[in-house]
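Translate sequence into structure tokens.
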Amino acid sequence: MPHYSTTQPTEALNTHSQGTADAHTNNLIGLSIISFPLFLLMSIITYKKYRTTVYRRRIAILEKIWLMDVKNNTYRQD
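Result follows.
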């Protein structure tokens, strides 16, 4: 009586685990591609708001200084 042995190839298991790793890598690359421009855009917007705030504070300080000079009635005469 002939004896038939069946073995499952181990390559199928390795291919499956390799496919999972590739899927995770592809997800990570996709997330990076999407998040980098968003992060860059948010950084630019935040920096512009910061510069606007600093500019307005400087104007407010200069106006206070100008009003203080007007109140004291001191001015330079050339």
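Note: The CA atoms of residues 59 and 65 lie 10 Å apart.
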